[in-house]
């Protein structure tokens, strides 16, 4: 006998108010041209169903795991960001890809799909605070600083040679980054990674150079380096783009093995060591299962850590009657709890922790986007310029070629 799902309390703290192009003063995001249906419209489900049916195979709707149930019900496929981009690429007959996720995901879908396909984000304010923490100009400034720093290469059968630090660094970016950053990484012989293959990507990178510049999620970089590859915490330094020279001395950069960008996910960053202690006191025998975007001390205190797909598989495979506290986005945790009534699945934090930019995509925006397509207009198309897309594809292809 297990306890039913308990809804976390509302948090007084507003989360992720900013989306790409949003208005921080009003927190309203960007306007939709045309008429956005009212959220109270009782006909929304019927309207979405009718619009999707009218478009038939011309439209393919992708739903990220963190999306609301009201949106997920219309997804042709659900998954994490990389799975969804590949699903879109595998449907060249679909003229329109409606991406129910956030901006960087729609960019990745545009990069990987045929040029004739149009990728649509139902609300342009659906950004990602983590991706927005690494802006191309800041990253280029950091890279130029690395180029200005000399290192002495260890002798390889000859005299030690002076070279610049950047020559020794392989950039690695998490999938959760803008197309600009993926393009930068592709131009500089690096690789993209996901939370599932970060260890493989880092292993490959350390075969190419002796240091990694990891963007934009410090936690995924640190957790993978320390917990999966045996690095010391001291091998990692944190580059803060808001401080001169990243707040690091030349010596710190020369001796570091991992240079972490100061970025994080505002959702997963909410879980604390106290959340873990509190749930262990509250739920006897609980297994704590968290995403690697969580802080290092939280991941260390957890029983299991893994990507969104890993979390789904772990709960599918868990024995009936087992108890779990899950540290990831709330829409997904609630959906998993309701899908597994024979297991006790609880949210790791006591308060609500949605990704509010993901939540910008609601049923009214989806209805609006689908009905615009039916009317022959293409709303909110996401396009990546060809040069950036080319280099981003290089970094993505390198990921696909990882051993
Ligand atoms: S959950 Fe975090 S990483 Fe994912 S879209 Fe939201 S802010 Fe970005």
TrEMBL record:
According to the record, the signal peptide region is none
Which subcellular locations apply to this protein?
Cytoplasm
Q: Kindly list the cofactors needed.
A: [4Fe-4S] cluster
Q: Which Gene Ontology terms cover its molecular function?
A: 4 iron, 4 sulfur cluster binding; metal ion binding; quinolinate synthetase A activity
Q: Name one Pfam family in it.
A: NadA
Give the record's GO CC terms.
cytosol
Q: Catalysed reaction per UniProt?
A: iminosuccinate + dihydroxyacetone phosphate = quinolinate + phosphate + 2 H2O + H(+)
Broad class of where this protein is predominantly found: cytoplasm
**What are its GO biological-process terms?**
'de novo' NAD+ biosynthetic process from L-aspartate
Pathways involved:
Cofactor biosynthesis; NAD(+) biosynthesis; quinolinate from iminoaspartate: step 1/1
Q: Does the keyword Transferase apply?
A: yes
Cofactor binding summary note: Binds 1 [4Fe-4S] cluster per subunit.
Which of this chain's residues are annotated to bind iminosuccinate?
64, 81, 174-176, 195, 291-293, 308
User: Cross-referenced InterPro entries, in alphabetical order?
Assistant: NadA, NadA_sf, Quinolinate_synth_A_type3
Q: Which family does it belong to?
A: Belongs to the quinolinate synthase family. Type 3 subfamily.
| Protein name in the entry | Quinolinate synthase
Which organism is this entry from?
Answer: Paractinoplanes rishiriensis
Q: What is the lineage of its organism?
A: Bacteria, Bacillati, Actinomycetota, Actinomycetes, Micromonosporales
